[in-house]
Amino acid sequence: MRIALRNLCVVAVTFLLMCCKDMSNSPIIQVKDVREVDYLNKTGDVIEGTFVREIMGGQVIIVCDTLLFAFTSNPEGMLEVYSTNNLQHKLASLCKRGRAENEMSMLSIAQVYKKENHYYMLLVDAFVRFCEIDITESLEKGYTVVTRTKMRQFDQMGHAIFLNNDIDYTLDYIPRYNHPEIEDDTKYPRVKYTLVKGDKHTELKFFNAPTQVANEGFVDDPYYGGVDKHPSKNIVVNYFSYMDYLLFMDFDKNHYFAVHQKGSTTHEDLYVNQEPWIRTFTSCLPTEEYVFIFYRDGEYANILQEDNTWHPELLVFDWEGNYIKGFKMDRNSSSLGYDSERKILYTFTSQKEQLYAYDLSELLP
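and the corresponding structure tokens:
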């Protein structure tokens, strides 16, 4: 027993040393192009949405071409599928809660892509099982068809982006990460980016040093946000929820750059938390041409509306980080989807379980 315990201690110490070594040898990605963009209080008129339907227990929506997917709390089908041609009719309820191979426990992350006339969804189930679902075949057969799975522990605070639309190749983003393997982690930014390809894990550093904060109680805030991927390219946008800062990562061209509001704080400056606690970027929607993103730090977004909520602005950027246009939303929403063929924006409010549609066909270039 003593020998086994001693060997276990040696393994544990060796693992910690390897983690420290990996941290110090992590590739530093040079974000050389950090430029200012002016989008503050530049949005146009309020755009009015049309009520489409209620989705009971709905949480998040995703739109790909003319398919709309709604994640719900319904154990008989946590993934509902609709056609945008007739949203009053549900095509299928997939991902039943259970323990069978084609059943799920808890859906957390998803991407949809098209290959050889089939639609596929990549998702993470219960933070341990990475799955690929053939949506087209599932609709044809009337039940969930799982084509690939991979077991891998995943941090519940994190988000995974599937590069090359492959469950074996991801960018893992973990905000508010305190580097438990390091005794003194104050020298490291409170965020972790890891490229996972098969069994190989490569940690990336986009920031040379941690952002200095005026109040130590807010040391995590400069890095908290989310990530989303271009539908067909390995370009990822990392939006930050408490800074006017968007980080673009093009893994195909090894090109990394950032944009931020003119005159706003960057990661090289002193971060001073706002009072009251105000968010900047929240829900993000990547499309082939644009990056749609909710913005909550402008004058309009900080007006308490008649429905007793704050309505965000919708900012539109291209994939070079240029600000294209912006709109004031007529209601508060938590999730976005976009039909690129007809230029219809869909928003969903999980609190009210309501789906709305906005015609942008004459509003975008």
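(Above: one complete record from the training split.) The CA atoms of residues 300 and 316 lie 16 Å apart.
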